[in-house]
């Protein structure tokens, strides 16, 4: 059966996995003048590849494997909980049409050597059978119970999903669209083998622990961060248990661990010198400055001209906290804030030191498709393992930083709360000496 188009006011192009190539020409109707002239061939936007056509190429490579209503394969394991319609949400297992060790398809913290196109391919292989569910797990049905068992497994689980229709892969004619796998309404879901559930997971799930306590115990037992996120999403942690949208779970887990690590490092001595770290990952530049002072954290982020959310005059956005933690939610940098903070705090905890921290994130045109907040977590973590140098003064560190970033350093200095605070304190000090 051929593809179909659903043209809405948001200009969303939905394609069946069998959409003929001739429909690609219709992409011209829904994009900017620049895209219409380029057609993905001239790369006039400056990106290394066309983010729109890249999605269609991925869809083409997997169409034969998922062109049916029943999908059997080894779930990585993986589940997804949506946020739209809360407290009635869409939840379901993610099952690829592949058997065997499929853990690499949903292991974000192990994707440090992967390309963006690899991530798009992984996500497109995971077919989601979705159903509506109340976030209150006490109202759950048999299928939700099976999904929870899947979530607790630490090994791929042979699974089978029966869908109402053949899965549809949504391809949005926008460079802003995150990679989304094919999905369809779920009729039935069954685990065809016993999931591998650790005894410690059983203990946590069956005990009445607060979610924060459960998260920290699992973290300190070295469970994979995204495994903990999966358990929280599936409504398996906490006293009053509820399904938690995946996106919320990621931030909740990273924030919870980050808060606990912050309280711990406040008891350690500050570092002795100014330190600079740097790494470039998936088209994102990450630079970290550590200062030999009491703890504070700030994330400075800019989307450069030609990048996904960039403009002709790039603006620096930021969020920050002192030793008491951030007030409310990181409104400007959102989930990136908690991911970046956690990676630096882990490094300081390992050293048993504290520091004043500034993370600089520059998003370049090479980051042509958003792949999730995990890349910030990994990018900053890799930066912390790549020291540029140690310096006696902040000015020396900033002089070296200039060589690593594209945007003028002055733009960052104008926005930075930590640097402005430090400058003001210095002025006050000299005024008192007069």
UniProtKB/TrEMBL annotation:
It comes from Thermococcus sibiricus (strain DSM 12597 / MM 739). This is DNA repair protein. InterPro entries: Nre, Nre_C, Nre_N. One of its GO terms (biological process) is DNA repair. Belongs to the Nre family. Residues 321-430 form the Archaeal Nre C-terminal domain. Keywords: DNA damage, DNA repair. Residues 44-309 form the Archaeal Nre N-terminal domain. HAMAP family: Nre. Involved in DNA damage repair. The keyword Transmembrane does not apply.
């Amino acid at each position: 059966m051929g593809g179909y188009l659903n043209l809405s006011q948001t200009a969303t192009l939905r394609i069946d996995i069998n959409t003929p190539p001739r429909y690609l020409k219709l992409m011209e109707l829904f994009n900017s003048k620049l895209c219409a002239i380029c057609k993905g061939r001239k790369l006039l936007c400056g990106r290394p590849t066309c983010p729109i056509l890249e999605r269609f190429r991925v869809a083409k490579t997997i169409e034969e494997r998922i062109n049916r209503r029943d999908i059997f394969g080894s779930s990585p394991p993986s589940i997804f909980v949506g946020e739209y319609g809360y407290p009635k949400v869409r939840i379901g297992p993610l099952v690829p049409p592949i058997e065997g060790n499929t853990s690499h398809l949903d292991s974000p913290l192990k994707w440090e050597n992967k390309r963006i196109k690899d991530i798009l391919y992984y996500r497109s292989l995971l077919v989601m059978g979705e159903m509506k569910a109340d976030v209150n797990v006490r109202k759950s049905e048999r299928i939700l119970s099976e999904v929870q068992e899947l979530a607790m497994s630490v090994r791929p689980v042979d699974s089978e999903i029966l869908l109402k229709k053949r899965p549809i892969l949504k391809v949005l004619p926008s460079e802003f669209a995150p990679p989304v796998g094919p999905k369809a309404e779920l009729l039935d879901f069954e685990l065809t083998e016993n999931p591998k559930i650790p005894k410690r997971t059983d203990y946590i799930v069956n005990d009445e622990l607060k979610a924060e306590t459960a998260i920290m115990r699992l973290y300190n037992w070295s469970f994979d961060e995204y495994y903990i996120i999966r358990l929280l999403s599936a409504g398996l942690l906490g006293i009053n248990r509820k399904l938690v949208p995946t996106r919320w779970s990621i931030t909740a887990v990273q924030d919870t661990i980050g808060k606990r690590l912050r309280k711990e490092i406040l008891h350690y001595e500050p570092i002795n010198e100014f330190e600079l770290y740097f790494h470039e990952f998936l088209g994102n530049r990450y630079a970290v400055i550590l200062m030999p002072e009491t703890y504070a954290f700030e994330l400075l982020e800019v989307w450069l001209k030609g990048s996904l959310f960039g403009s002709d005059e790039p603006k620096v956005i930021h969020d920050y906290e002192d030793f008491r933690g951030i007030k409310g939610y990181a409104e400007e940098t959102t989930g990136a804030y908690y991911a970046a903070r956690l990676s630096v705090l882990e490094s300081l905890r390992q050293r048993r030191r504290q520091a004043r921290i500034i993370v600089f994130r520059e998003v370049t045109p090479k980051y042509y498709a958003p792949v999730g907040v995990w890349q910030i977590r990994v990018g900053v973590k890799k930066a912390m393992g790549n020291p540029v140098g140690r310096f006696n003064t902040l000015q020396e560190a900033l002089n070296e930083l200039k060589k690593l970033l594209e945007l003028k350093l002055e733009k960052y200095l104008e926005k930075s709360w930590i640097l402005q605070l430090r400058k003001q304190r210095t002025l006050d000090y000299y005024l008192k000496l007069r």
